[in-house]
Write a structure and sequence with these properties.
Elements (H helix, E strand, L loop, with lengths): L1 H25 L6 H5 L9 E8 L5 E8 L2 E12 L2 E11 L15 E10 L19 E3 L4 H8 L3 E8 L18 H37 L2
Helix pairs in contact: 1-4
GO cellular component, one term: plasma membrane
Organism: Paraglaciecola polaris LMG 21857
Subcellular location: Cell membrane
Length: 221
């Protein structure tokens, strides 16, 4: 329980640091892909603008994305801008009642001056990828594994995801939310685990003391 309290505390501190980083990034000017290549600092959450052509034939659907309690998919596509291939998150679409029936998604031919944020995806070792290297599209993926996506598409991708933030396409829901659970909630969980740990310690302490008393009395009889 004490370990869980410490874990929640560390998560809260990390979230607070991320919130501060987002606030700092929001105050910066909007970058282009060319500028990002020469940027020396942390690119996470930086605002970015992109123009380029889209690969409409190869669409990835990120599974298990929830919006207002409704299951759906994150729609991912590839934008080519001046020879750079970038994975773009176009937003959320609702899933069908029958899970095997995928939503119909149509991407435009190009994007022009599209605004977004840079996201550095991380692999979750507890998630098992179910997509295969076949010719079936759109392809449902379980997480954003850049290496796997490069294998599927046979292209070299920039090492980040561009999440579009402008809500100018009624086909998608675009609600950029980098921090789902605020730091304060993690701190509250840390206090709860700490309280339970202290309570368990005192229960153990008094139970052990009573047991030792009982043993001592039996020895003196």
């Amino acid at each position: 329980m004490f370990a869980l309290a410490n874990w929640q505390l560390q998560r809260g501190l990390n979230k607070a640091q991320r919130v501060a980083s987002i606030a700092a990034a929001s105050s910066r000017e909007t970058f282009t892909l060319e500028q990002i290549k020469f940027y020396q600092g942390d690119i996470q959450d930086l605002p970015i603008v992109i123009s380029g052509t889209l690969n409409r034939a190869h669409i990835l659907l990120l599974d298990n994305q929830i919006h207002q309690g409704r299951p759906g998919f994150g729609v991912l596509g590839i934008a080519n801008s001046d020879g750079q291939n970038v994975l773009v998150n176009f937003g959320w679409v609702a899933g069908k009642r029958v899970r095997t029936e995928l939503p119909t998604v149509a991407l435009p031919n190009t994007v022009s001056g599209a605004l977004g944020r840079i996201v550095l995806p991380s692999n979750n070792p507890l998630i098992t990828e179910t997509a295969t290297l076949d010719a079936e599209w759109p392809k449902v993926i379980q997480q954003i594994d850049m290496r796997f996506i490069e294998q599927v598409l046979q292209v070299k991708l920039e090492p980040f995801l561009l999440t579009l933030t402008e809500n100018n396409n009624p086909q998608f829901v675009r609600k950029w939310q980098p921090v789902v659970m605020p730091p304060e909630k993690h701190y509250a969980y840390a206090v709860q685990w700490l309280g339970l740990g202290i309570a368990a310690f005192f229960v153990y302490f008094f139970a052990l003391r009573n047991r030792l008393k009982k043993v001592s009395n039996e020895e003196h009889q």
